[in-house]
Design brief:
heterodimer, A: 585 residues, alpha+beta, FAD/NAD(P)-binding domain, 2 domains, nine-stranded mixed β-sheet, six-stranded antiparallel β-sheet, B: 259 residues, mainly alpha, 40% helix
Chain lengths: 585, 259
């Protein structure tokens, strides 16, 4: 196998977290190489008009998403079942190519609740030690919001977030989220324009005494120059945002704000079409010595030695690389031992349709983040005493697009074809909307990732196997919050309100729910129940770091991008400290 | 229900381009009855027809649909044409399914990357899963589509003594509804899964995808719902037309208009 000269820091996966950490490293002159399995989207049909606005190509047929023919995941709902490969995944959509899933993301960017990094401590102190069931391995992260706040602030400035502060240094701000963790200042940009659907929601929830606020967005509300001198265009509200690349460079993304700048920096290299097979691990020395990858341009297998290796791929790939490389002890739910693959979580969502003949909703004027949100029933923002579940969900109103193949709502009972079907489409496309819930998903002892014993990918490696289903805690939470949403929908004055259906088991791969899958390489204070340290350093190889939503011990009722970006920036600084003096940080 | 006199039906009784007429006669010779004779007559009711709709369905400006099939055999084409004309009858909203390009769309998808199983994990073993695992057959979508057509024809013939394109519109409607609801049994093909997970999404895409793919001819479905299409630069519209009718919805633009 061809062996290349050693590099200081080698990243596996060229998405958002690698770009952010590489910014910190190259700023300090540290040699950085990023290996990315895909290509560069910047000049492709996906990033240029008119082909960018092709719903069928990029949305229906998942043009920017991982190729399932090369690599997919298997699923079983319980350990006793046989797992089957998901041959075409709809439920969640990992990206491929430079920028990763942050090319086709919506742009919602939250700081999670101040208590999220200490969730176990929070629940135990509020509800008592017995409130957390033995099947729910919630744990503190080993870090705090206060430690992450400077990096949240930096990330929000780099990505030009548009929003309205709800809490500046402990002072609640009118029009913002009263449950927001304290910020040092306003958002870098004013909020996006509210859409008609957002207005319907805002009016309804204000009438009920709740406090709606605009979702913090990485969709630029105006032309913006970030602290690095990198520029965002103004959002066009084109309705081709999530699942698409923004040709107007108005959606903050690594390919707009990070990689063009990094490529100008000395000591930075990104190598495309490099599919990493494993981390080379010296178990005796407890060190990662480099990575082995296939150069997709030649088919050749190559060894790339490194002083420091960083796993910065998608949640699933980070976990699989540790398992295929034999680093760390795989999680065993029966004996409750091991850690790799543990605390696999998702996002517990539901929605309700509203039909309002008097309102011109114009769903096609939208961004990936045009919505109003309310946090009263999210996470632990309300008293769970006697409710029988933990967690909650943010309730929102607003549409992200009106793309006609997928975003037409029809009243219950509409025929599925024929003239009456057309009539309903003609009547309601411009006059309907939905409210939605993005709910937390806490870990369950039987929800985990492991290597599949049967199915392999195009490189001959085992597929990653999901053992996952909706457990009673999440089902009960969804019933409760969905009923709250139904009350709001009834108060909105709609002609017709669709059924309020809470999330139901079994987990269904045929329906898009969210790309927010978390866990598998979780962080924590103790090597017995975590894969990486609070500084994201692997307990069994201190020169191996892991970053991304895979380090979250639980999933909150928010999009995952904010904290993982803050953690990635901090990790960049931590790796620089490690490089100066290798040790357990 | 009453006929809308402003918008006459777009059946095959009306003008048919010579080339298409030839193809249909050829299909008839191959054993399939010329389609559209039953379903082409609009069963459509009284509809609110705006100016855009009148333009969409005006007889003289019937949109051009590419002729010929790249995947479907004559028999399969007869089935698909009957199906799309049932699911999309000519009415005041759109021409019939064939004239709206729906059969051509489905054919092109089956002949192209989708039909050949692009991006789909196709390694064995092939086990029977739960519905939530999604499609689990070793057939590529084109093969499964055709296997389903054959199975549906068999089931139809067993019930009515003739093929799907030969039964009456009322019979076809009832048959298709039963099939979608899992009430039409076949010993090898799960016809409900075939229709709901493969045929119906193709039908929906045929109606609403950009016309560059062959369906939604003349943007009739976009005009019907008021989707303005491209270029979708709405920064100013967002404020000016929030909560108001957007004029661009009357004249949608597709990728073709910018190419």
């Amino acid at each position: 196998m061809k062996k290349l000269p050693k590099r200081a820091v080698v990243f596996v996966g060229g998405g958002l977290t690698a770009g952010l950490a590489a910014r910190q490293l190259t700023e300090k002159g540290i040699d950085t190489l990023i290996l990315e399995r895909g290509g560069d989207h910047e000049r492709g049909a996906e990033a240029r008009l008119p082909t960018q606005r092709d719903e069928l190509r990029w949305d229906t047929y998942q043009g920017l998403v991982q190729d399932w023919a090369v690599q997919t995941y298997t699923l079983r709902h319980a350990s006793k079942e046989q797992a089957l490969p998901v041959r075409w995944m709809e439920a969640f959509l990992p990206g491929e190519g430079l920028g990763g899933a942050a090319n086709h993301w919506n742009g919602h960017t939250w700081r999670w609740a101040e208590y999220d990094p200490q969730l176990r401590t929070r629940f135990e102190s509020r509800y008592g030690k017995r409130a957390i069931s033995a099947d729910m391995p919630i744990q503190d992260w080993g870090t705090s919001y206060k430690e992450m706040e400077p990096y949240h602030d930096l990330f929000e400035k780099l990505f030009g977030l548009a929003g309205k502060a709800g809490n500046i240094n402990g002072q609640l701000q009118a029009g913002g989220n009263p449950f927001e963790a304290p910020r040092r200042g306003e958002y870098p940009q004013k909020p996006l324009e509210i859409s008609e659907s957002g207005l319907v929601f805002k009016q309804a929830v204000e009438k009920m005494g709740y406090k709606p606020f605009p979702t913090p967005a990485a969709n630029s509300s105006a032309p913006y120059t970030n602290p690095d001198g990198q520029k965002l265009g103004q959002c066009q509200y084109c309705g081709h945002c999530e699942r698409f690349i923004c040709e107007a460079r108005a959606k903050a993304s690594p390919e707009v704000l990070l990689y063009p700048m990094l490529r100008q920096r000395k000591g930075f290299e990104v190598r495309l079409k490099a599919h990493v097979l494993k981390v080379i691990y010296d178990a005796k020395a407890r060190r990662a010595t480099g990575v082995q990858y296939v150069d997709l341009n030649t088919g050749e297998e190559i060894e790339q030695p490194a002083d420091v290796v960083v796993l910065s791929a998608f949640t699933m790939a980070n976990t699989r690389l540790l398992l295929t490389s034999g680093i760390g002890k795989p999680y065993d739910p029966v004996r409750n031992t091991g850690v790799v693959g543990k605390n696999f979580c998702y996002q517990t969502n539901s929605s309700i349709n509203l039909f309002m003949s008097e309102r011109w909703i114009n769903p096609f004027m939208a961004t990936g983040s045009t919505q109003y949100y309310m946090d009263e029933f999210n996470n632990d923002n309300f008293d769970h005493g006697g409710l029988g579940f933990l967690g909650g969900g943010g309730i929102s109103g607003g549409l992200f697009h009106g793309r006609p193949v997928s975003a037409r709502r029809l009243p219950p009972g509409t025929p599925r074809w024929g003239t009456e079907w057309k009539k309903a489409n003609a009547q309601w496309y411009l006059h309907s909307l939905n409210f939605g819930i993005q709910g937390s998903c806490y870990p369950h002892r039987d929800n985990y990732l492991s290597l599949d014993p049967t199915y392999t990918d195009a490189f001959g490696q085992p597929l990653l196997r999901m053992t996952f289903d909706w457990r009673e805690n999440e089902l009960a939470m969804s019933r409760y919050v969905t009923a709250k949403m139904a009350e709001i929908a009834k108060a909105a004055g709609a002609d017709i309100v669709g059924p309020a259906v809470p999330r139901q088991a079994p987990f269904d791969t045929r329906q898009y729910q969210s790309t927010h899958i978390t866990g598998g390489t979780i962080m924590g204070n103790d090597p017995r129940d975590s894969v990486v340290s609070p500084h994201l350093q692997h307990w069994d190889a201190h020169n191996l770091f892991v970053v991304g939503a895979s380090v979250y011990p639980h999933n909150s009722g928010y999009n995952p991008t904010g904290p993982l970006s803050a953690l990635a920036l901090r990790m960049g600084d931590d790796i620089a400290r490690y490089a100066a003096s290798p040790r357990l940080l | 229900m009453q006929q809308d006199s402003k918008n006459p039906p777009q059946g095959d009784e009306q003008e048919v381009p010579a080339r298409r007429l030839f193809l249909k006669q050829a299909a008839g010779i191959a054993g399939a009855m010329p389609i559209g004779l039953q379903f082409g007559v609009a069963g459509g009711g009284a509809i609110l027809a705006g100016p855009a709709l009148a333009q969409a369905t005006g007889g003289a400006s019937a949109p051009e649909v590419a002729a010929g099939y790249a995947s479907l055999s004559a028999d399969e084409a007869a089935f698909v044409e009957a199906l799309v004309n049932l699911m999309c009858p000519a009415d005041s909203y759109t021409p019939n399914g064939v004239d709206a390009g729906l059969a051509v769309y489905i054919d092109r998808q089956l002949a192209g990357a989708f039909g050949k199983g692009a991006k789909r994990y196709m390694r064995g073993p092939w086990l029977r899963g739960k519905p939530q695992h999604g499609y689990q057959l070793p057939l590529i979508p084109e093969q499964f589509f055709k296997a389903g057509v054959e199975a549906a024809e068999q089931a139809c013939t067993a019930k009515f003594g003739k093929g799907f394109e030969q039964i009456t519109a009322a019979q076809a409607e009832a048959f298709l509804r039963d099939l979608a609801e899992g009430k039409v049994a076949h010993d090898q093909i799960d016809l409900a899964a075939w229709f709901n997970d493969l045929v119906y999404p193709l039908f929906n895409q045929a109606c609403f995808a950009d016309p560059i793919y062959g369906g939604n001819a003349g943007k009739v479905f976009w005009k019907m719902i008021g989707y303005p299409g491209l270029p979708a630069t709405h920064t100013i519209n967002m404020i000016q037309y929030r909560g108001k009718p957007f004029p661009g919805a009357n004249d949608p633009k597709s990728i073709t208009d910018f190419s």
